[in-house]
Amino acid sequence: MGVKVIEKGILTSIQDKGRFGYAQLGVSQGGAMDRYSAKIANLLVGNEAFKAVMEVTLLGPLLEFTKDAFIVLVGIEANIRLNGNEISLLKPFKVTRGDRLHIKQITKGARLYLAIFGGFQTEVRLESRSQFFPITKTSSVKKGDLIAISKNEGLKLVDFASVKYKNKELTSSVIEVFKGPEWDQVPSVLQEQILSTELTISKNNSRMAYQLQEQFPNTLAGMLSQPVLPGTVQFTPDGNLIILMRDSQTTGGYPRIFQLTEDSINVLAQKRQGDSLQLKLIDED
Amino acid sequence: MNIDKLQFKQLGKQAILILWEDKMDVNILSEILYVKKNIEEIKLKEIVEVNNTYNSLIINYVFAINNIYDEISVLKDLLKKANIDKIYEGSKYILPVCYHEKFSLDLEEVCAQKKLEVEEFISTHTTPIYTLYFMGFLPGFLYLGGLPKSLQISRKKTPRLRVEKGSVGIGEKQTGIYPQISAGGWQIIGNCPLTLFDASLKKPTPFSAGDQIKFKAVSLEEHQYILNKIELGKYQFEKVKEWE
Fold first, then answer.
1. Which of A20, A136, A181 sits opposite B62 (nearest CB)?
2. Domains in chain B, start-ordered, CATH in brackets?
3. Closest Cα partner for B183 from B204, B167, B197, B198?
4. B14, A262 in Cβ contact below 8 A?
5. N or C: which end of chain B has fewer CB within 10 A?
6. Contacts of B57 in chain A (CB under 8 A)
7. How many Å lie between the alpha carbon of A136 and the closest alpha carbon of chain B?
8. In chain B, which stretches have pLDDT less than 50?
9. Residues of B in contact with A181 (CB under 8 A)
10. ipTM score here?
11. Pairing mode of beta strands A53-57, A111-116
Protein backbone atom coordinates (compact mmCIF):
# COMPACT_ATOMS: atom_id res chain seq x y z
CA MET A 1 0.00 0.00 0.00
CA GLY A 2 1.91 3.07 1.12
CA VAL A 3 1.20 5.12 4.21
CA LYS A 4 -0.30 3.93 7.48
CA VAL A 5 -2.00 6.43 9.76
CA ILE A 6 -0.86 5.71 13.35
CA GLU A 7 -2.25 8.96 14.79
CA LYS A 8 -4.53 11.14 12.70
CA GLY A 9 -3.91 14.64 14.06
CA ILE A 10 -6.65 17.29 14.42
CA LEU A 11 -7.86 17.34 10.84
CA THR A 12 -5.90 15.55 8.17
CA SER A 13 -7.37 14.94 4.73
CA ILE A 14 -6.46 14.06 1.17
CA GLN A 15 -7.00 16.96 -1.22
CA ASP A 16 -6.39 17.81 -4.85
CA LYS A 17 -7.85 20.64 -6.93
CA GLY A 18 -11.40 19.70 -5.95
CA ARG A 19 -14.55 19.34 -8.06
CA PHE A 20 -15.41 21.65 -10.90
CA GLY A 21 -18.72 21.39 -12.71
CA TYR A 22 -20.82 19.82 -9.96
CA ALA A 23 -22.19 22.99 -8.36
CA GLN A 24 -25.54 22.38 -10.05
CA LEU A 25 -25.88 19.19 -8.02
CA GLY A 26 -25.14 21.12 -4.84
CA VAL A 27 -21.61 19.70 -4.59
CA SER A 28 -18.90 21.94 -3.08
CA GLN A 29 -15.65 22.53 -4.92
CA GLY A 30 -13.45 21.37 -2.06
CA GLY A 31 -9.76 20.82 -2.72
CA ALA A 32 -6.63 22.04 -0.93
CA MET A 33 -7.43 25.06 1.28
CA ASP A 34 -4.09 26.66 0.40
CA ARG A 35 -3.83 25.69 -3.25
CA TYR A 36 -0.59 27.55 -3.63
CA SER A 37 1.31 25.51 -1.02
CA ALA A 38 -0.22 22.27 -2.31
CA LYS A 39 1.00 23.14 -5.78
CA ILE A 40 4.54 23.96 -4.61
CA ALA A 41 4.62 20.65 -2.74
CA ASN A 42 3.65 18.73 -5.86
CA LEU A 43 6.17 20.54 -8.04
CA LEU A 44 8.96 19.81 -5.56
CA VAL A 45 8.53 16.05 -5.90
CA GLY A 46 8.16 16.26 -9.67
CA ASN A 47 4.37 15.88 -9.82
CA GLU A 48 1.89 17.85 -11.86
CA ALA A 49 0.51 20.80 -9.88
CA PHE A 50 -2.64 19.21 -8.48
CA LYS A 51 -1.96 15.58 -7.65
CA ALA A 52 -3.61 14.49 -4.40
CA VAL A 53 -1.65 15.65 -1.33
CA MET A 54 -2.20 15.25 2.38
CA GLU A 55 -3.49 18.41 4.06
CA VAL A 56 -2.51 18.72 7.71
CA THR A 57 -4.10 21.17 10.17
CA LEU A 58 -2.31 22.60 13.25
CA LEU A 59 -1.44 19.32 15.01
CA GLY A 60 -0.45 16.70 12.51
CA PRO A 61 -0.51 12.96 12.13
CA LEU A 62 2.01 10.24 12.87
CA LEU A 63 2.52 8.22 9.70
CA GLU A 64 4.37 5.02 8.93
CA PHE A 65 5.56 4.23 5.43
CA THR A 66 4.96 0.66 4.33
CA LYS A 67 6.76 1.33 1.07
CA ASP A 68 9.67 3.49 -0.11
CA ALA A 69 8.64 6.93 -1.26
CA PHE A 70 9.89 10.36 -2.28
CA ILE A 71 8.19 13.10 -0.30
CA VAL A 72 8.20 16.76 0.68
CA LEU A 73 6.50 18.91 3.30
CA VAL A 74 5.38 22.43 2.46
CA GLY A 75 4.05 25.00 4.88
CA ILE A 76 5.19 28.12 6.68
CA GLU A 77 6.84 26.69 9.81
CA ALA A 78 6.45 23.35 11.56
CA ASN A 79 8.01 20.87 13.93
CA ILE A 80 8.45 17.58 12.05
CA ARG A 81 10.36 14.42 12.89
CA LEU A 82 11.41 11.46 10.78
CA ASN A 83 12.29 8.57 13.09
CA GLY A 84 12.94 11.17 15.76
CA ASN A 85 15.20 13.39 13.63
CA GLU A 86 14.22 16.91 12.69
CA ILE A 87 13.07 17.46 9.11
CA SER A 88 13.06 20.72 7.14
CA LEU A 89 10.22 22.04 5.06
CA LEU A 90 10.56 22.49 1.29
CA LYS A 91 13.34 19.90 0.97
CA PRO A 92 12.27 16.69 -0.78
CA PHE A 93 13.69 13.47 0.61
CA LYS A 94 13.42 9.71 0.34
CA VAL A 95 11.76 7.58 2.97
CA THR A 96 12.07 3.84 3.21
CA ARG A 97 9.73 1.17 4.41
CA GLY A 98 9.22 1.32 8.16
CA ASP A 99 10.10 5.02 8.49
CA ARG A 100 7.90 7.02 10.84
CA LEU A 101 7.03 10.60 9.99
CA HIS A 102 5.56 12.70 12.77
CA ILE A 103 4.17 16.13 11.86
CA LYS A 104 4.06 17.26 15.47
CA GLN A 105 2.94 20.82 15.22
CA ILE A 106 2.49 23.65 12.79
CA THR A 107 4.21 26.55 14.54
CA LYS A 108 3.40 29.26 11.97
CA GLY A 109 0.42 29.26 9.62
CA ALA A 110 -2.40 26.76 9.92
CA ARG A 111 -1.94 24.18 7.17
CA LEU A 112 0.83 22.06 5.81
CA TYR A 113 1.01 19.82 2.76
CA LEU A 114 2.67 16.45 2.40
CA ALA A 115 3.22 15.58 -1.25
CA ILE A 116 4.45 12.25 -2.43
CA PHE A 117 5.88 11.38 -5.82
CA GLY A 118 2.98 10.06 -7.92
CA GLY A 119 0.39 11.39 -5.48
CA PHE A 120 -1.88 9.67 -2.95
CA GLN A 121 -4.09 7.08 -4.63
CA THR A 122 -7.36 7.31 -2.76
CA GLU A 123 -10.70 6.75 -4.43
CA VAL A 124 -11.76 9.16 -7.19
CA ARG A 125 -15.32 10.44 -6.75
CA LEU A 126 -16.81 12.92 -9.21
CA GLU A 127 -13.42 13.39 -10.86
CA SER A 128 -11.52 14.22 -7.67
CA ARG A 129 -9.89 12.52 -4.70
CA SER A 130 -10.67 15.44 -2.37
CA GLN A 131 -12.24 14.12 0.80
CA PHE A 132 -15.69 15.51 1.54
CA PHE A 133 -18.57 13.56 3.05
CA PRO A 134 -20.79 12.17 1.52
CA ILE A 135 -19.01 12.48 -1.82
CA THR A 136 -16.22 10.39 -0.31
CA LYS A 137 -16.82 7.97 2.56
CA THR A 138 -15.22 10.27 5.13
CA SER A 139 -14.13 13.91 5.30
CA SER A 140 -10.73 13.15 6.81
CA VAL A 141 -8.22 10.35 7.28
CA LYS A 142 -8.76 8.10 10.27
CA LYS A 143 -6.47 6.26 12.65
CA GLY A 144 -5.52 2.93 11.10
CA ASP A 145 -6.17 4.01 7.49
CA LEU A 146 -3.77 2.58 4.96
CA ILE A 147 -3.44 5.04 2.11
CA ALA A 148 -2.16 3.81 -1.23
CA ILE A 149 0.61 5.60 -3.06
CA SER A 150 1.77 4.97 -6.60
CA LYS A 151 4.91 3.16 -7.65
CA ASN A 152 8.16 5.07 -7.67
CA GLU A 153 8.89 4.30 -11.31
CA GLY A 154 9.91 7.26 -13.39
CA LEU A 155 11.10 9.28 -10.44
CA LYS A 156 13.34 12.14 -11.51
CA LEU A 157 14.92 14.28 -8.87
CA VAL A 158 14.10 17.90 -9.51
CA ASP A 159 16.22 20.87 -8.74
CA PHE A 160 14.14 22.18 -5.87
CA ALA A 161 16.26 25.29 -5.57
CA SER A 162 14.46 26.58 -8.65
CA VAL A 163 11.03 26.54 -6.98
CA LYS A 164 10.51 29.66 -4.93
CA TYR A 165 8.03 29.53 -2.05
CA LYS A 166 6.45 32.91 -1.37
CA ASN A 167 6.54 32.58 2.38
CA LYS A 168 6.23 36.30 3.04
CA GLU A 169 3.17 36.88 0.84
CA LEU A 170 1.47 33.89 2.43
CA THR A 171 1.76 35.33 5.94
CA SER A 172 0.43 38.76 4.98
CA SER A 173 -2.38 40.17 7.12
CA VAL A 174 -3.83 41.97 4.09
CA ILE A 175 -6.69 40.12 2.44
CA GLU A 176 -7.50 41.46 -1.02
CA VAL A 177 -11.15 41.57 -1.98
CA PHE A 178 -13.33 42.64 -4.88
CA LYS A 179 -16.71 44.28 -4.28
CA GLY A 180 -19.42 41.67 -3.91
CA PRO A 181 -22.77 41.87 -5.73
CA GLU A 182 -24.53 43.37 -2.68
CA TRP A 183 -21.69 45.68 -1.57
CA ASP A 184 -23.42 48.76 -2.98
CA GLN A 185 -26.38 48.17 -0.65
CA VAL A 186 -24.12 48.65 2.39
CA PRO A 187 -24.36 52.27 3.68
CA SER A 188 -21.13 54.15 2.93
CA VAL A 189 -20.36 54.85 6.59
CA LEU A 190 -20.51 51.14 7.28
CA GLN A 191 -18.46 50.37 4.17
CA GLU A 192 -15.68 52.56 5.51
CA GLN A 193 -15.99 51.03 8.95
CA ILE A 194 -15.67 47.46 7.67
CA LEU A 195 -12.68 48.36 5.50
CA SER A 196 -10.85 50.24 8.25
CA THR A 197 -11.39 47.77 11.10
CA GLU A 198 -8.72 45.26 12.02
CA LEU A 199 -10.63 41.97 11.89
CA THR A 200 -10.02 38.80 13.87
CA ILE A 201 -10.50 35.14 12.97
CA SER A 202 -13.02 33.62 15.39
CA LYS A 203 -13.02 30.08 16.78
CA ASN A 204 -15.61 29.19 14.12
CA ASN A 205 -13.21 28.48 11.32
CA SER A 206 -13.19 25.35 9.22
CA ARG A 207 -12.73 24.10 5.68
CA MET A 208 -16.26 25.39 5.01
CA ALA A 209 -15.99 28.94 6.31
CA TYR A 210 -14.12 31.41 8.51
CA GLN A 211 -16.32 33.55 10.71
CA LEU A 212 -14.83 36.83 11.95
CA GLN A 213 -15.12 37.98 15.53
CA GLU A 214 -16.16 41.59 14.86
CA GLN A 215 -19.81 42.39 14.26
CA PHE A 216 -21.36 45.25 12.31
CA PRO A 217 -24.97 46.46 12.30
CA ASN A 218 -26.71 44.94 9.29
CA THR A 219 -29.79 46.68 7.89
CA LEU A 220 -29.70 44.99 4.46
CA ALA A 221 -32.91 43.47 3.16
CA GLY A 222 -33.23 39.70 3.05
CA MET A 223 -32.85 37.98 -0.31
CA LEU A 224 -33.52 34.76 -2.18
CA SER A 225 -30.73 32.18 -2.13
CA GLN A 226 -27.97 33.16 -4.55
CA PRO A 227 -24.89 31.41 -5.94
CA VAL A 228 -21.76 31.66 -3.81
CA LEU A 229 -18.15 30.55 -4.31
CA PRO A 230 -15.14 29.88 -2.13
CA GLY A 231 -13.97 33.36 -1.13
CA THR A 232 -17.45 34.92 -1.00
CA VAL A 233 -17.91 37.07 2.12
CA GLN A 234 -21.43 36.87 3.53
CA PHE A 235 -22.92 39.50 5.84
CA THR A 236 -25.50 37.83 8.08
CA PRO A 237 -28.59 39.52 9.59
CA ASP A 238 -27.04 39.27 13.08
CA GLY A 239 -24.07 41.28 11.83
CA ASN A 240 -21.41 38.62 11.30
CA LEU A 241 -18.96 38.41 8.42
CA ILE A 242 -18.51 34.86 7.14
CA ILE A 243 -15.84 34.12 4.59
CA LEU A 244 -16.70 30.98 2.65
CA MET A 245 -13.79 28.62 2.06
CA ARG A 246 -13.13 25.61 -0.22
CA ASP A 247 -15.84 23.31 1.21
CA SER A 248 -18.47 26.05 1.07
CA GLN A 249 -22.03 25.42 0.00
CA THR A 250 -22.94 26.35 -3.56
CA THR A 251 -25.78 28.72 -2.66
CA GLY A 252 -26.53 31.05 0.22
CA GLY A 253 -29.18 33.52 1.29
CA TYR A 254 -27.03 36.25 2.86
CA PRO A 255 -25.82 39.42 1.12
CA ARG A 256 -22.45 38.86 -0.57
CA ILE A 257 -20.42 41.95 0.19
CA PHE A 258 -16.95 40.86 -0.99
CA GLN A 259 -15.22 38.24 -3.06
CA LEU A 260 -11.64 37.32 -2.09
CA THR A 261 -8.97 37.04 -4.74
CA GLU A 262 -7.70 33.51 -5.33
CA ASP A 263 -4.36 34.42 -3.70
CA SER A 264 -6.13 35.77 -0.63
CA ILE A 265 -8.09 32.54 -0.14
CA ASN A 266 -4.70 30.80 0.15
CA VAL A 267 -3.44 33.44 2.59
CA LEU A 268 -6.57 33.10 4.72
CA ALA A 269 -6.22 29.30 4.71
CA GLN A 270 -2.96 29.81 6.63
CA LYS A 271 -4.67 31.83 9.39
CA ARG A 272 -5.97 30.47 12.65
CA GLN A 273 -8.19 31.58 15.54
CA GLY A 274 -7.07 34.93 16.94
CA ASP A 275 -5.06 36.00 13.85
CA SER A 276 -5.90 39.47 12.59
CA LEU A 277 -6.49 40.68 9.08
CA GLN A 278 -7.26 43.81 7.14
CA LEU A 279 -9.52 43.79 4.10
CA LYS A 280 -8.25 45.72 1.10
CA LEU A 281 -10.65 46.57 -1.70
CA ILE A 282 -9.03 46.25 -5.09
CA ASP A 283 -10.08 47.38 -8.55
CA GLU A 284 -11.91 44.97 -10.74
CA ASP A 285 -9.98 45.79 -13.94
CA MET B 1 -34.69 37.50 -25.78
CA ASN B 2 -34.92 40.91 -24.24
CA ILE B 3 -31.85 41.38 -22.10
CA ASP B 4 -32.52 44.95 -20.97
CA LYS B 5 -34.19 43.78 -17.77
CA LEU B 6 -31.20 41.64 -16.78
CA GLN B 7 -28.31 42.74 -14.60
CA PHE B 8 -24.78 41.54 -15.22
CA LYS B 9 -22.42 41.52 -12.27
CA GLN B 10 -19.12 39.93 -11.44
CA LEU B 11 -18.13 37.82 -8.47
CA GLY B 12 -14.39 38.25 -8.29
CA LYS B 13 -12.19 37.71 -11.34
CA GLN B 14 -13.51 34.29 -12.22
CA ALA B 15 -17.27 34.49 -12.23
CA ILE B 16 -20.08 36.44 -13.90
CA LEU B 17 -23.58 36.65 -12.49
CA ILE B 18 -26.73 37.30 -14.49
CA LEU B 19 -29.65 38.48 -12.39
CA TRP B 20 -33.34 38.40 -13.19
CA GLU B 21 -36.16 40.02 -11.23
CA ASP B 22 -35.96 39.19 -7.53
CA LYS B 23 -38.69 36.55 -7.25
CA MET B 24 -39.54 32.85 -7.37
CA ASP B 25 -41.38 32.35 -10.64
CA VAL B 26 -41.52 29.44 -13.11
CA ASN B 27 -41.36 31.79 -16.11
CA ILE B 28 -38.15 33.33 -14.80
CA LEU B 29 -36.71 29.88 -14.09
CA SER B 30 -37.60 28.83 -17.61
CA GLU B 31 -35.65 31.75 -19.11
CA ILE B 32 -32.70 31.08 -16.83
CA LEU B 33 -32.56 27.42 -17.84
CA TYR B 34 -32.68 28.25 -21.55
CA VAL B 35 -29.84 30.72 -21.10
CA LYS B 36 -27.93 28.10 -19.08
CA LYS B 37 -28.40 25.56 -21.86
CA ASN B 38 -27.22 28.05 -24.48
CA ILE B 39 -24.08 28.86 -22.52
CA GLU B 40 -23.31 25.19 -21.88
CA GLU B 41 -23.60 24.54 -25.60
CA ILE B 42 -20.88 27.00 -26.55
CA LYS B 43 -18.53 26.75 -23.57
CA LEU B 44 -16.46 23.70 -22.71
CA LYS B 45 -17.44 22.14 -19.41
CA GLU B 46 -13.78 22.01 -18.44
CA ILE B 47 -13.69 25.80 -18.64
CA VAL B 48 -16.99 27.00 -17.26
CA GLU B 49 -19.36 25.74 -14.63
CA VAL B 50 -22.88 27.15 -14.84
CA ASN B 51 -25.31 27.06 -11.94
CA ASN B 52 -28.62 28.75 -11.21
CA THR B 53 -30.74 29.71 -8.24
CA TYR B 54 -34.29 31.18 -8.24
CA ASN B 55 -33.43 34.34 -10.11
CA SER B 56 -29.80 34.19 -11.09
CA LEU B 57 -27.22 32.36 -13.06
CA ILE B 58 -23.54 32.08 -12.22
CA ILE B 59 -20.96 31.42 -14.92
CA ASN B 60 -17.86 30.33 -13.06
CA TYR B 61 -14.61 30.11 -15.04
CA VAL B 62 -11.78 27.78 -14.16
CA PHE B 63 -9.25 30.63 -14.54
CA ALA B 64 -9.32 34.42 -14.18
CA ILE B 65 -11.22 36.14 -16.97
CA ASN B 66 -8.90 38.31 -19.05
CA ASN B 67 -11.31 41.09 -19.80
CA ILE B 68 -14.55 40.84 -17.91
CA TYR B 69 -16.35 43.47 -20.02
CA ASP B 70 -15.51 41.64 -23.26
CA GLU B 71 -16.74 38.40 -21.74
CA ILE B 72 -19.98 40.03 -20.60
CA SER B 73 -20.60 41.37 -24.09
CA VAL B 74 -19.99 37.91 -25.55
CA LEU B 75 -22.65 36.59 -23.16
CA LYS B 76 -25.03 39.45 -24.01
CA ASP B 77 -24.74 38.70 -27.73
CA LEU B 78 -25.44 35.05 -27.05
CA LEU B 79 -28.49 35.91 -24.95
CA LYS B 80 -29.87 38.33 -27.56
CA LYS B 81 -29.88 35.52 -30.11
CA ALA B 82 -31.33 32.96 -27.71
CA ASN B 83 -34.77 31.87 -28.72
CA ILE B 84 -36.95 31.50 -25.67
CA ASP B 85 -40.59 31.15 -26.53
CA LYS B 86 -41.86 28.27 -24.48
CA ILE B 87 -41.75 27.04 -20.92
CA TYR B 88 -38.75 24.85 -20.18
CA GLU B 89 -39.96 21.32 -19.69
CA GLY B 90 -38.05 19.05 -17.33
CA SER B 91 -38.69 15.44 -16.35
CA LYS B 92 -41.63 14.50 -14.14
CA TYR B 93 -41.16 12.41 -11.02
CA ILE B 94 -43.43 11.06 -8.30
CA LEU B 95 -41.72 10.71 -4.92
CA PRO B 96 -43.14 8.71 -2.00
CA VAL B 97 -43.44 10.49 1.35
CA CYS B 98 -44.41 8.89 4.64
CA TYR B 99 -46.12 11.38 6.95
CA HIS B 100 -46.20 8.97 9.91
CA GLU B 101 -45.50 10.56 13.30
CA LYS B 102 -42.30 8.52 13.53
CA PHE B 103 -40.84 10.92 10.95
CA SER B 104 -43.02 14.04 10.96
CA LEU B 105 -41.49 15.73 14.00
CA ASP B 106 -43.12 19.11 13.39
CA LEU B 107 -46.34 18.10 11.64
CA GLU B 108 -48.57 18.38 14.69
CA GLU B 109 -47.25 21.83 15.56
CA VAL B 110 -47.44 23.02 11.95
CA CYS B 111 -51.05 21.82 11.70
CA ALA B 112 -51.94 23.56 14.95
CA GLN B 113 -50.41 26.80 13.73
CA LYS B 114 -52.03 26.58 10.29
CA LYS B 115 -55.35 25.35 11.75
CA LEU B 116 -55.37 22.19 9.64
CA GLU B 117 -56.19 18.56 10.29
CA VAL B 118 -53.24 16.23 9.58
CA GLU B 119 -55.20 14.58 6.72
CA GLU B 120 -55.89 17.99 5.24
CA PHE B 121 -52.21 18.86 5.44
CA ILE B 122 -51.22 15.62 3.71
CA SER B 123 -53.72 16.01 0.90
CA THR B 124 -52.68 19.64 0.38
CA HIS B 125 -48.97 18.76 0.36
CA THR B 126 -49.46 15.92 -2.15
CA THR B 127 -51.67 17.89 -4.55
CA PRO B 128 -49.37 20.42 -6.29
CA ILE B 129 -46.82 19.81 -9.00
CA TYR B 130 -43.66 21.29 -7.52
CA THR B 131 -40.86 22.80 -9.57
CA LEU B 132 -37.24 21.96 -8.87
CA TYR B 133 -35.57 25.38 -9.00
CA PHE B 134 -32.07 24.21 -8.16
CA MET B 135 -29.98 21.99 -5.92
CA GLY B 136 -27.90 23.54 -3.17
CA PHE B 137 -27.11 23.48 0.56
CA LEU B 138 -26.16 19.78 0.39
CA PRO B 139 -25.38 17.50 -2.57
CA GLY B 140 -28.76 16.62 -4.04
CA PHE B 141 -30.86 18.89 -1.79
CA LEU B 142 -33.86 19.83 -3.93
CA TYR B 143 -35.24 23.35 -3.61
CA LEU B 144 -38.88 22.85 -4.60
CA GLY B 145 -41.15 25.82 -5.25
CA GLY B 146 -44.93 25.77 -5.46
CA LEU B 147 -45.86 25.10 -1.84
CA PRO B 148 -49.55 26.07 -1.35
CA LYS B 149 -50.01 29.26 0.62
CA SER B 150 -52.03 27.45 3.30
CA LEU B 151 -48.90 25.41 4.19
CA GLN B 152 -46.31 28.19 4.13
CA ILE B 153 -44.62 28.64 7.48
CA SER B 154 -41.40 30.17 8.77
CA ARG B 155 -38.33 28.07 9.49
CA LYS B 156 -37.67 26.85 13.01
CA LYS B 157 -36.21 29.58 15.24
CA THR B 158 -33.32 27.34 16.22
CA PRO B 159 -32.18 24.85 13.58
CA ARG B 160 -31.99 21.18 14.57
CA LEU B 161 -28.44 19.88 14.92
CA ARG B 162 -29.49 16.59 13.38
CA VAL B 163 -32.12 16.01 10.73
CA GLU B 164 -32.39 12.43 9.43
CA LYS B 165 -31.72 11.39 5.84
CA GLY B 166 -34.85 11.65 3.71
CA SER B 167 -36.58 14.14 6.01
CA VAL B 168 -39.13 16.19 4.10
CA GLY B 169 -39.26 19.79 5.23
CA ILE B 170 -41.14 23.00 4.61
CA GLY B 171 -39.72 26.48 5.06
CA GLU B 172 -41.27 29.73 3.80
CA LYS B 173 -42.48 29.12 0.22
CA GLN B 174 -40.40 26.01 -0.29
CA THR B 175 -40.47 22.33 0.39
CA GLY B 176 -37.53 19.96 0.08
CA ILE B 177 -35.89 16.72 1.13
CA TYR B 178 -32.69 16.32 3.16
CA PRO B 179 -30.59 13.85 1.11
CA GLN B 180 -28.33 13.02 4.06
CA ILE B 181 -28.11 13.49 7.81
CA SER B 182 -27.47 17.16 8.42
CA ALA B 183 -28.26 20.13 10.61
CA GLY B 184 -31.35 21.91 9.34
CA GLY B 185 -33.93 24.57 10.08
CA TRP B 186 -36.95 23.53 8.06
CA GLN B 187 -40.12 22.17 9.68
CA ILE B 188 -39.99 18.38 9.28
CA ILE B 189 -43.30 16.92 8.10
CA GLY B 190 -42.39 13.50 6.69
CA ASN B 191 -39.76 11.22 5.21
CA CYS B 192 -38.93 10.10 1.69
CA PRO B 193 -37.24 6.67 1.65
CA LEU B 194 -35.38 7.28 -1.63
CA THR B 195 -31.64 7.82 -2.04
CA LEU B 196 -31.54 11.19 -3.75
CA PHE B 197 -27.80 11.40 -4.15
CA ASP B 198 -25.23 8.63 -4.60
CA ALA B 199 -21.72 9.85 -5.35
CA SER B 200 -20.59 6.36 -6.37
CA LEU B 201 -22.72 6.64 -9.51
CA LYS B 202 -21.59 8.40 -12.66
CA LYS B 203 -24.85 10.34 -12.51
CA PRO B 204 -25.25 10.81 -8.73
CA THR B 205 -28.81 12.12 -8.97
CA PRO B 206 -31.49 11.73 -11.64
CA PHE B 207 -32.76 15.28 -11.06
CA SER B 208 -31.90 18.57 -12.65
CA ALA B 209 -33.22 22.11 -12.32
CA GLY B 210 -36.56 22.53 -14.08
CA ASP B 211 -37.85 19.05 -13.23
CA GLN B 212 -41.40 18.66 -11.92
CA ILE B 213 -42.09 16.71 -8.77
CA LYS B 214 -45.22 15.43 -7.10
CA PHE B 215 -45.42 13.68 -3.74
CA LYS B 216 -47.56 10.68 -2.93
CA ALA B 217 -48.35 9.62 0.62
CA VAL B 218 -47.19 6.14 1.65
CA SER B 219 -47.74 4.19 4.86
CA LEU B 220 -45.02 3.23 7.30
CA GLU B 221 -45.08 -0.32 5.84
CA GLU B 222 -44.75 0.93 2.27
CA HIS B 223 -41.90 3.21 3.35
CA GLN B 224 -40.05 0.19 4.78
CA TYR B 225 -40.86 -1.89 1.69
CA ILE B 226 -39.29 0.79 -0.55
CA LEU B 227 -36.21 0.97 1.70
CA ASN B 228 -35.82 -2.80 1.36
CA LYS B 229 -36.15 -2.59 -2.42
CA ILE B 230 -33.48 0.11 -2.53
CA GLU B 231 -31.21 -2.04 -0.37
CA LEU B 232 -31.57 -4.85 -2.93
CA GLY B 233 -30.92 -2.44 -5.79
CA LYS B 234 -34.41 -3.06 -7.17
CA TYR B 235 -35.98 0.37 -6.83
CA GLN B 236 -36.47 2.64 -9.80
CA PHE B 237 -37.50 6.28 -9.61
CA GLU B 238 -41.11 6.71 -10.69
CA LYS B 239 -41.02 8.89 -13.77
CA VAL B 240 -44.11 9.84 -15.78
CA LYS B 241 -44.50 11.21 -19.30
CA GLU B 242 -47.56 13.35 -18.57
CA TRP B 243 -49.40 14.34 -15.43
CA GLU B 244 -52.84 12.79 -15.29
1. A20
2. 3-81 (3.30.1360.40), 92-240 (2.40.100.10)
3. B167
4. yes
5. C
6. 227
7. 7
8. none
9. 9, 11, 17, 19
10. 0.93
11. antiparallel
